[in-house]
Amino acid sequence: MDLKKIGLFLKELRNERRLSQENFAEIFHVARRTVSRWETGRNLPDIVILIEIAEFYDLDLREILNGERKDQKMDADIKDSVLQAAQYSNEERKIFSKTVIRLFVFALILSILRIVINRLELAGKWFDFVAGFCDGFVIVTLVVGIIHSTKYSAKLIEAKQRILKK
Questions:
Q1: CA separation, residue 139 to residues 59, 117, 150 (Å)
Q2: What value does the CA radius of gyration of the chain take, rounded to a whole number of Å?
Q3: From the CB of residue 110, how many other CB atoms can be counted at a distance below 10 Å?
Q4: What are the pLDDT digits (tens) for 81-138?
Q5: CA-CA distance, 83 to 69, in Å (whole number)?
Q6: What does the alpha-carbon distance between residue 45 and residue 6 come to, in Å, rounded to a whole number?
């Protein structure tokens, strides 16, 4: 898949409709900068947005992914399969997001526990261990949250899969 070719094709389609990047971004509820990244081939839209773009331009999804027009239209079965895959992907993200939220709630509880230990000036091996555990868990949770919110998690998963395939 040639990202630059796809990007140029998306730009060509947008220009044919005489849409600015900003207008296009509003239609698909993304930032103008995101459209620019798609058109320069730096990244691709999510599969759900790709399907919406294909429908918007009355094109086959394969045409967009190939970066050129074809005469054949996508079969309804293929489209349904792609939509199901996209739905599965969204469900997977929801489950991961719920897990991250649970981690943050637990980290919040541990932070409160840490504050209580400090306020009551409790000391001893057991309290020091609990305070250290709280601090460590909160830091790890923050790192996981940052990775998740910046979408580095997808890159880490891809890297892990490449390593496991070797």
A1: 47, 18, 17
A2: 23
A3: 19
A4: 667 777 766 777 777 778 878 888 888 998 888 888 888 887 788 888 888 888 898 8
A5: 21
A6: 11
